[in-house]
Amino acid sequence: MTTTAPAATRKPATMAQALTRALHDAMAADPTVHLMGEDVGTLGGVFRITDGLAKEFGEDRCSDTPLAEAGILGTAVGMAMYGLRPVVEMQFDAFAYPAFEQLISHVSRMRNRTHGAVPMPLTIRVPYGGGIGGVEHHSDSSEAYYLATPGLQVVTPATVADAYGLLRAAIASDDPVVFLEPKRLYWSKDDWSPDAPTPVAPIGRAEIRRRGESATLITYGPSLPVCLEAAEAARAEGWDLEVLDLRSLMPFDDEAVCASVRRTGRAVVVHESPGFGGPGGEIAARITERCFHHLEAPVLRVAGFDIPYPPPMLERHHLPGVDRILDTVARLQWESGWTEGRGA
Amino acid sequence: MTTTAPAATRKPATMAQALTRALHDAMAADPTVHLMGEDVGTLGGVFRITDGLAKEFGEDRCSDTPLAEAGILGTAVGMAMYGLRPVVEMQFDAFAYPAFEQLISHVSRMRNRTHGAVPMPLTIRVPYGGGIGGVEHHSDSSEAYYLATPGLQVVTPATVADAYGLLRAAIASDDPVVFLEPKRLYWSKDDWSPDAPTPVAPIGRAEIRRRGESATLITYGPSLPVCLEAAEAARAEGWDLEVLDLRSLMPFDDEAVCASVRRTGRAVVVHESPGFGGPGGEIAARITERCFHHLEAPVLRVAGFDIPYPPPMLERHHLPGVDRILDTVARLQWESGWTEGRGA
Amino acid sequence: MTVLEQPGSSRNKSSLPGPPPDWRPRVDPAPLLPDAEPYRLLGTPAARGLDADLLKRLYAELVRGRRYNVQATALTRQGRLAVYPSSTGQEACQVAAALALEDRDWLFPSYRDTLAAVARGLDPVQALTLLRGDWHTGYDPHRHRIAPLCTPLATQLPHAVGLAHAARLKGDDVVALAMVGDGGTSEGDFHEALNFAAVWQAPAVFLVQNNGFAISVPLAKQSAAPSLAHKAVGYGMPGRLVDGNDAPALHEVLTEAVQRARRGGGPTLIEAITYRIEAHTNADDATRYRTDAEVEAWRAHDPIALLERELTARGLLTDEFAAATQDGAERLAADLRGRMNQDPALDPMDLFTHVFAEQTSQLRDQAAQLRAELDAEQTPAEEARP
Amino acid sequence: MTVLEQPGSSRNKSSLPGPPPDWRPRVDPAPLLPDAEPYRLLGTPAARGLDADLLKRLYAELVRGRRYNVQATALTRQGRLAVYPSSTGQEACQVAAALALEDRDWLFPSYRDTLAAVARGLDPVQALTLLRGDWHTGYDPHRHRIAPLCTPLATQLPHAVGLAHAARLKGDDVVALAMVGDGGTSEGDFHEALNFAAVWQAPAVFLVQNNGFAISVPLAKQSAAPSLAHKAVGYGMPGRLVDGNDAPALHEVLTEAVQRARRGGGPTLIEAITYRIEAHTNADDATRYRTDAEVEAWRAHDPIALLERELTARGLLTDEFAAATQDGAERLAADLRGRMNQDPALDPMDLFTHVFAEQTSQLRDQAAQLRAELDAEQTPAEEARP
Ligand SMILES: Cc1ncc(C[n+]2csc(CCOP(=O)(O)OP(=O)(O)O)c2C)c(N)n1
Ligand SMILES: Cc1ncc(C[n+]2csc(CCOP(=O)(O)OP(=O)(O)O)c2C)c(N)n1
Ligand SMILES: [Mg+2]
Ligand SMILES: [Mg+2]
């Protein structure tokens, strides 16, 4: 099914609403889908993403667990072994850390270690990132940890439609998916029809959100709106920036990324997570490996600083913003003539 | 003190012996140094690195803890708050995962969150990497997780002398150090004098282990001997490879790395940890950012595959070996003339 | 014919093999078990014997604490505080924890325990820095012997144990008191901390404030134990169950535990049964998971009212004392209000100052970048980008 | 004048405030407490009443198990097995765990429990694949209802709880039995698993093999609890303490717990007191941390010898039965030896086959690289690098 809803039925919806709808539809479609986590039942989650689901599907299918993240993920592993399709909610990014042992040593390896006999069709929903004025430990961007763990798929929506489509795809996947939900986009709105939802988005495909010729901004999740804004602002400087939304960090869409960068010849990777050891290094390195002769300048990065996430009153200085992106675009060696003699 | 022991007193020692000696000397020099971990007391650790220390310094200063890694690191945090200098042993790489919450949310941030009032002079010793025929969960290379955590220093010796010098420096550091010990080099030998040990190695300085002109192999820990071997083998192909041992992944010695790459114009990063999201991406990206105009070819990477660590009988196919390194060096575009016209 | 070279087939006289050679019950479990009912003093004849000064001190602190809670909640409505997890209804736990400690002891509070820190003497504005958002920890933990207010649940418990253990190794008679919620007892760190404490006989006291809920999750979905205090048995430490709204009872039980720890008697687990009268935080909607009737029932068991009844019965609640108490509370609130209404002075460059003792070259570069951006912000826009 | 609008100052008739409104002891702790002494049958009068066939079956399995342990250890010396954590001395636990389960039930073994898997019917070679090193899990867990042998301690316990819970949700009367060592009980995952199991009333049984040591660390440095079984109380499940070398006693206690779980009666924690006669693994040097005398004392309490005594007393250990038993054990050993002496057939390309259901383009590239390297290995060296 590739049809899109007729424009008439589309109306503004928030990313939170689209996520709730995705969970709802997945539960309705497949009785093995079980939600679990802290406060996901009666309360509907602290971000209200599971609102109403316990009521509709019963507490057994949307259940409040004891407060213990390793226990939540560890029991979900056992449930998956018995044929269920657990969808786990971690309440905040940093509170997934106690479950890392289960994630790294079991969730990510179970299929592999059992020679394919025990798949892990688990979805782990992690509200991530800052910009919401959260107190300490409520604003981390931890995608680097997930990316360094072979066997995990790492997916993050940046649009309302993707929130629905990618979450449906994550739940349908027979492999574990870390589904990163950008906290500060929960209340972002877009025209979208909950009655005829967009088709399930395939995992592993990047998407060009804005066409441009001068350079490519490569980003995902919470930084997409910032990049789009930067691209608009860049017009005043005479730059026509392309903006690429990765959507899936693993699998990584080398094809789409390289096609764009080969066309524009310049790239900046933008993310909120600290730069050192963050996803940007991997992305820049693989672009350079694959597109070296097409590059007019090194791939640059705009990332969070290499510091613990700051207190709310200082977070705006940490987060990649339009100015920092434009300053970086300005460093893409627009004036240099050195590429002329290239043989590639 | 910068004197080196007179050659006469130097005799073969293993990395394990140098580590034991470093712990011993640190304990003797500073009564606040306390070792703790599973089996570190009576047994001397499963790798015997703490052999004899409980006997010499008493069980209070080298103590067997209950079997709980979060508890070990978490209590070490409290001990550090009270003015001790704990040195924690994680028995194997993968068994540090249960302690990740403590590491990420507390150890790495304590100084920062308290505005400098509560430093964390903790050393976390982690035997890491494969190549020793270890069964499942005994051969991980987890450095990417540590690198993605702002506030941690990440250090790893590749030589007997560095094992001593860097461990002394780690223990002396007022900030937390993840001290990665390459398991398969524990029994590597070198001429070294335990009676007049080499000076304490400063953290954050890379070291050129082999001078060369054609290209730089950038590596650390268990892959250093492999790179040196590859460099020897490369002579037959007409390549004179430089080998750079990073020693410290954070702080990162941009200066030494860039100086070498600017000179050779080509670089390959070699490590055992999976490539995707691993340290190599960061390293390649920052070299490219800084040395773009000096690069004759993209910085390439030789890393472990993006798979869970294989069973012992298959590990040799996973680990970066001499052939794979040489194959990669061969891809550094030796024939291309395209760099001629460069303006840089 | 046997598979083992054992005198197995030629049987011994006694047909009873001994117990396993190394078996012995290592500790008698009986003294570790908590009482069947929560311990209380108020309303019992024993209350009559309590020291009048102590009761008055507790009362004054409770009233002050309640006023602090009310004021902090009001500040969230006025936008001067980002979020406040109120301890209204739990003031007896907060106050008793603070008063049970000597100056040299350490307090390890959870994110809900700002009042305990204030009752210990911490400046209320510094106690609220985390929740206002200008810095994570607004005070010097060493100066106040108060660890950072801890957001990740139960993760500060092992810190308390390690600190207590270190103090003991150094020969200092320092006790660490750590606070955690009922929900937090489910975390692995709770288990590991208590086990380490018992094995090390560390001078640590664990106070579980069982307020019946972890945000929306009621205790029955959190634990099936007879009580949370019963968890003590599994570690080999005594468990005590206390009415968490009975300030003198709490004070007595906590003081006993602290003294025992100080004497080298090892750790104690104390469960205080209480109730959170307000929502989880100002951002929470408690009507989603509990009834007004339940809240009302607990209001009738209010810690201040309980103590007030006793003070009145003993004629200790004179108009003068009540007025002075009220006055002190109002002064605290006015001071807090006034100072929280001022914007804190912030330096963005602080982001880089305390990541490491010595700044890395990487952080130096980033600091320079931010410095340049801040300077550019001062400059007219057209000049900013060259 | 009061700070609360409460009828506080006008006191009620009764001076006793009620208990906290929501307080009630939720479970009576008494029935959860383990006995003061390890439960045993062998050597007691009750042993006489035990079913002869059961005793003989247990005996045959113990003898077979011992032979398996001896053979596997021998294989490490011959270089056919990388490492072997022997369960010699713990065979009663291993065998009883296997026999207590129905076919549809699940076993969650730790890394030391290969024998339990073999006693359940798993091919001994498949059980040893992990330790030989040709693949992590050498069997299909679903086919045998045996979860992967688990190296990270205690981490498989939550899996067992989740599986048991899922089975119950599906309406299947399946029980999960999870095994863990004394050391493993200190891990946070132990705590979280038992708590989830009790809250969910999951049909799970936890068997702690307390063999006195976690590698070199003796129990006293691991736990200060009266017994490890006493940990059950803190979760609200029954705790049982058993002589872990008394196979019939273990079988009875385990079977009871499994049946109770199957009936919906919830989880049980069982501590079996036993001893590891061999070193931790063949790579360990046990003389560093324990005395020969201690080992000898436990040899005298050997599970096979204990049962043999009873069989002999009841005249059940006929020459014929003993010979058949011995014979079966030798056949197992010979088969194991023979098959382990063959090198396993390995395909390096398997490294990429099961990382994901659908291979990523990244892994496709890497697989192609390895394929090329393997092909080059076949080719003479000079041709290999172009
Ligand atoms: C490790 C961790 N997981 C989840 C959270 C999110 N969270 C904050 S408060 C809370 C409930 C805490 O309940 P309880 O321990 O009973 O303390 P109370 O709020 O009742 O004081 C949760 C789940 C957290 N802070 N830390
Ligand atoms: C999480 C974790 N930490 C550490 C280890 C290393 N290790 C392997 S066995 C062992 C001791 C286990 O003791 P116990 O639980 O009593 O089981 P036993 O070996 O006696 O059967 C240790 C520390 C591990 N496997 N997993
Ligand atoms: Mg609570
Ligand atoms: Mg043991």
TrEMBL record, chains A, B:
Q: What cofactor is this protein dependent on?
A: thiamine diphosphate
**UniProt KW keywords:** Oxidoreductase
One of the protein's GO biological processes: branched-chain amino acid catabolic process
Domain Transketolase-like pyrimidine-binding stretches: 13-188
User: EC?
Assistant: 1.2.4.4
Q: Which SMART domains match?
A: Transket_pyr
Leader sequence residues: none
Gene3D superfamilies in the record, alphabetically?
3.40.50.920, 3.40.50.970
Chain coiled-coil ranges: none
* Database matches in Pfam families: Transket_pyr (PF02779), Transketolase_C (PF02780)
> What GO molecular function terms would the record report?
branched-chain 2-oxo acid dehydrogenase activity; magnesium ion binding
Q: Which domain of life is it from?
A: Bacteria
According to its UniProt record, this protein's enzyme class is oxidoreductase
Q: Write down what this protein is called.
A: 3-methyl-2-oxobutanoate dehydrogenase (2-methylpropanoyl-transferring)
Q: Which organism is it from?
A: Streptomyces chattanoogensis
User: According to the entry, what is the taxonomic lineage of the organism?
Assistant: Bacteria, Bacillati, Actinomycetota, Actinomycetes, Kitasatosporales
From TrEMBL, chains C, D:
* Keyword Oxidoreductase found: yes
Give cofactor(s), names only: thiamine diphosphate
Q: Which InterPro entries match?
A: Alpha-ketoacid_DH_E1_comp, DH_E1, PdhA/BkdA, THDP-binding
Keyword terms: Oxidoreductase, Pyruvate, Thiamine pyrophosphate
Judging by the UniProt lineage, the source's domain of life is Bacteria
CDD domains listed in its UniProt record: TPP_E1_PDC_ADC_BCADC (cd02000)
Q: Where is this region: Disordered?
A: 1-30
Q: Enumerate the spans annotated as Dehydrogenase E1 component domain.
A: 73-327
Single GO MF descriptor: magnesium ion binding
Per its UniProt record, what Pfam families does this chain match? E1_dh (PF00676)
GO annotations under biological process? branched-chain amino acid catabolic process
Give yes or no: UniProt keyword Transcription regulation.
no
Q: Mind telling me which PANTHER family this protein's record contains?
A: 2-OXOISOVALERATE DEHYDROGENASE SUBUNIT ALPHA, MITOCHONDRIAL (PTHR43380:SF1)
Give the protein name, as stated in the record: Pyruvate dehydrogenase
What is the originating organism of this protein?
Answer: Streptomyces chattanoogensis
The organism's taxonomic lineage, starting at the top: Bacteria, Bacillati, Actinomycetota, Actinomycetes, Kitasatosporales
